[in-house]
Write a structure and sequence with these properties.
heterodimer, A: 291 residues, alpha/beta, 2 domains, 8-stranded mixed sheet, B: alpha/beta, Rossmann fold, 13 helices, 21% strand, globular
Chain lengths: 291, 381
């Protein structure tokens, strides 16, 4: 335990005024811990890492850690990350978002970032609710549950974020929970290591805004729910449809190879340069001499 | 070997001149979304940027475009986007972010007729107030308006210089007439252009306080990956970049944002005088209308009317220091514009009863002709 604490302290910002903004029992700290452990294992220097976030409880995550950190506008984190990666491809750009952030207001950016396949890592903390603004329903709020903006019941159907990422073209997609802590460490590490657009959906809980309204108990009870419902993909393959009802799978959904955007663009640059040189040789005889 | 073309007379389109100006100023990143009448900027940069080792990307919308531009700027690239009315509306959100996080970037808005989808292929000057106040919250902004193809080149270079020097987004507010006009111009040699870069920190990283006030009001800008790790946020932040709700930190921060622009009004507020020494009837115009106005002034002078033109290049911050003294000594000031009166409101505000301010407004999607202005000058004389 002491070792782990020491490790986390190595990456926290000591000039930042703590405490953090998250409620006691929140899953965000577990995700941050997993992220720090993954970065430490991979041996990236602090200067190489850029941690980008959107708006909401997850949006506050970068401010606590000693990397290049960027807290962007709501839903737009991936667009900022795209610019950073293209301008400086050597940087290790990691984006943290919430479920509303990534799939409601940022849904379009999310699918297009996956389609483009830049070498980015997207971690989406899915707690099924807009927590910071007070418990309004999000695109992942389950059908039939309650939220401050669904006081009778939610009549919309939830997105499956990980499956959406697979369909949109992400080369690595994993789903974990804040309960399955070891698995989460592995998934985040794999997603960062993977060249291309890697996504980790982290099923988390908001006992303050979601659990309370839906009689799911405190943080511990909600993590128990994750333990009981989260089934390893390998294990799910051996289970019947009935057994899998009310369950969700955790593990690696996809791990594949597709061309990386920056590699492709390097080829575009080479072609453009070739064309420019040819133009200069053809038309710019005098130019070439003068310059 | 430098790729920039030699200075010689060429037939150039306004949007193309913006591209040439951007490249000459050192722009190496562009993100945009197709929109008429700004698409040529994207198309030409898609061709040219990879030739100079830069990056072009077409994003999924204009919100994403400005997001990517801000990200690239934080990673050290001089960055730009180009759009028109509907796209400019979408950019307002991240424009505010660039203001508050002090990220240099250039946004070209080729004005077309509005509101909404409006008149995609017709000129307008309807976005003057939007460019000033479009993003929420109180903020300063720099907006420059070119009036010709050559102007488009020069002003784009200036826009980059201002954005880098003052760490602020700068809007190049051009219009469909200027953007799509082709004319013979001589573009300057790249080595004869003044190009300014952002000030970067030179102290040891542990001494770097990213949003510390300086005498210039503009703190040096750390670049992601250069060893100066700090926090960038759209929240109001303290000198270290961390979110704050303390009154004694909020006010100094916002004051500095304004001060870094206001203490440099003399450098930022650009105007052109034409025959204003003995002027009695003053025309105040900008963009393509300024060219019509110049012709009208020449014609009026040939009839013995003491007409003159003050062309506004900087629209925001409004160049009051240049406008006010002229208003004090003219008989009448005419403000022609392709809207219902946006700059004329400002002229009236600074006029404070000094003279008579009259307007000439055209909103039918056609440009204001020299004849229209000339006829008004005759009538006012």
């Amino acid at each position: 335990m002491q070792e782990i604490t020491k490790l986390v302290h190595k990456y926290l910002r000591h000039d930042k005024k703590f405490p953090h903004v998250w409620c006691p029992g929140c899953g965000n700290g577990i995700v941050l811990g997993a992220l720090i452990r993954a970065i430490d294992r991979l041996g990236s220097s602090k200067d190489e890492v850029v941690l980008v976030s959107g708006i909401g409880c997850s949006g506050r995550l970068p401010v606590y850690v000693d990397f290049n950190t960027l807290h962007t506008t709501h839903g737009r984190a991936l667009t900022f990350a795209t610019g950073i990666k293209l301008a400086k491809p050597a940087l290790n750009v990691i984006v943290v978002m919430g479920d509303g952030d990534a799939t409601a207001i940022g849904g379009n950016h999310f699918i297009h970032a996956a389609r483009r396949n830049l070498d980015l890592t997207a971690i989406i903390i899915n707690n099924s609710i807009y927590g910071m603004t007070g418990g309004q329903y999000s695109p992942t709020t389950p059908y039939g549950s309650r939220a401050t903006t669904a006081p009778y019941r939610n009549i919309e159907h939830a997105f499956s974020i990980a499956e959406l990422a697979v369909t949109a073209g992400a080369v690595f997609v994993g789903r974990g929970t804040v309960y399955h802590a070891r698995l989460l460490d592995q998934l985040i590490e794999k997603a960062i290591m993977k060249r291309g657009f890697g996504v980790v959906e982290v099923i988390s809980h908001c006992h303050t805004q979601y659990g309370r309204r839906n009689e799911m108990g405190n943080a511990v009870a909600m993590m128990r729910w994750q333990k009981e419902r989260g089934v390893r993909i390998e294990q799910a393959a051996t289970m019947s449809k009935e057994e899998l009802e009310d369950k969700f799978t955790v593990g690696v959904l996809v791990d594949r190879e597709l061309p990386i955007y920056t590699d492709e663009y390097d080829m575009v640059r080479a072609a453009a340069k070739g064309k420019a040189d040819a133009e200069l040789a053809k038309h710019g005889g005098q130019d070439a001499v003068d310059e | 070997m430098p790729r920039e073309r030699k200075s010689q007379a060429r037939l150039v389109q306004g949007n193309e001149a913006i591209v040439e100006g951007a490249l000459a100023a050192g722009c190496r990143f562009f993100a945009g979304y197709p929109i008429t009448p700004a698409s040529e900027v994207s198309e030409i940069l898609a061709y040219r940027l990879p030739q100079v080792g830069g990056t072009f990307i077409q994003m999924e919308d204009e919100i994403a475009s400005l997001g990517a531009v801000i990200g690239a700027s934080l990673a050290g690239a001089k960055s730009m986007t180009a759009t028109s009315g509907p796209g400019f509306s979408l950019m307002q959100e991240n424009l505010g972010f660039a203001c508050v996080a002090e990220v240099p970037c250039v946004i070209v808005n080729v004005m077309r007729g509005g509101p909404s989808t409006g008149l995609p292929t017709n000129p307008s000057q309807g976005d003057v107030m939007q460019s000033r106040w479009g993003t929420h919250g109180d903020h300063p902004i720099i907006v420059l308006a070119p009036c010709s193809v050559r102007d488009s080149f020069d002003i784009t270079v200036k826009a980059f210089n201002f954005s880098e020097r003052y760490r602020t987004p700068v809007i190049v507010l051009t219009d469909e007439v200027v953007a799509h006009t082709r004319e013979k111009v001589v573009l300057p040699d790249p080595d004869q252009i003044e190009v300014l870069d952002r000030i970067k920190p030179t102290m040891p990283p542990e001494w770097y306080i990213p949003y510390e006030d300086t005498s210039r009001g503009v703190p040096p800008m750390g670049i992601f990956g250069d060893g100066y790790r700090y926090h960038v946020t759209g929240l109001i932040h303290d000198v270290r970049g961390f979110p704050t709700a303390r009154a004694d930190e909020i006010e100094p921060f916002l004051n500095r944002l304004f001060r870094k622009i206001s203490q440099n009004f003399h450098a930022i507020q650009l105007v052109e005088h034409y025959l204003t020494e003995d002027v009695e009837i003053l025309v105040i115009a900008y963009g393509s209308v300024a060219r019509s106005a110049k012709r009208a002034v020449i014609d009026a002078r040939s009839r013995g009317i003491k007409a003159g033109l003050l062309q506004l290049i900087t629209l925001w911050p409004f160049p009051r220091q240049h406008v006010e003294p002229l208003l004090r000594r003219v008989r009448v000031a005419l403000v022609p514009e392709m809207n219902m009166g946006q700059v004329s409101r400002e002229v009236k505000r600074v006029n404070e009863g000094a003279t008579r301010v009259t307007t000439l407004n055209r909103i039918d999607g056609r440009m204001i002709t020299p004849r229209q202005i000339y006829e008004r000058l005759i009538r006012e004389s």
